[in-house]
Amino acid sequence: MIPDxxxxxxxxxxxxxxxxxxxxxxxxQNYKNSGSHLNxxxxxxxxxxxxxxxxxxxxxxxxIGPDGFILQSECDIPTNAKLENVQAxxxxxxxx
Length: 96
Description:
Helix content is about 70%, strand content about 0%. The chain has about 100 residues and is mainly α.
């Protein structure tokens, strides 16, 4: 299907941009790999301990990353997040 999209895009724009499409696919796959873990991080921010957050984030970076992995808390940090848990996520990223 992607080759068809590339051909239609070239027909409409007059430019070859397959690198753009395959780059977006690769980015999407890496982002998708991190997506199932975002809810766990959100929950841990509110109800976990700093050690649990730190260790979980280090595990994600080790197993999924470090290249192409985006360590984040979905779109925002929950309002009920404990500051020390958010700081633990940042520390895990910096220590990797």
